[in-house]
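Hi F.,

I've been meaning to write this up properly since the lab meeting, where we talked about keeping a consistent format for the predictions we share between groups. The idea is simple: the sequence comes first, exactly as it goes in, then the structure tokens exactly as they come out, then a line or two of notes. No screenshots and no reformatting. I'm using this chain as the first example so we have something concrete to point to.
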Amino acid sequence: MVKQYLIKYKFSLLMIILWSGVYIGKPVLAIRSVELTVLNLRQMLLVIPPIFVLLGLLDVWVPRQTMVRFLGEGSGVRGIVLSFVAGAVAAGPLYGAFPVAAVFLKKQATFRNVFIFIGAWSTIKVPMFLFEWQSLGWKFALTRLCLNIPGILLIAWVLDTLLKPEDRRWIRQQADDLSLR
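Output, unedited:
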């Protein structure tokens, strides 16, 4: 029984041991690391619940047929544009994109569109673009945007091309097995 817990929580235990070593050597650094950990946990606890509420609504309110029509096979340019827009206007840190991507996959969005969505979420946020425009100038902001869009498209295409059929099935199965209700 104890051995099972040790195996299950080995990384947590390792972190406690490492933190204890840092505390012995540099207590100020160890205390600061705990403060940052608590700050990050607080931020996650403020962001994650609203994301899961929205995911639950998306899962219940948007029928699979609608998602297939707009982001599934045959969605073409419309699916690409919607994936970019959904990722660019989404709020929250990148770890919020992955549960949304799982719901998209569960609703039969293409892998390409999901990759585009994650790429847009991570690099083309509207608030970030506006901040760059104001702080670094319009040339920088537009140059970065114009370089990121083809980069995201290329990465999505490469990943979509390299993903094996058995991996696609496995990933879709994992998404289908997720229960948000």
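Notes:
The two ends are 32 Å apart (CA to CA).
The chain has two domains: 1-47, 62-177.

If this format works for you, I'll send the rest the same way.

G.
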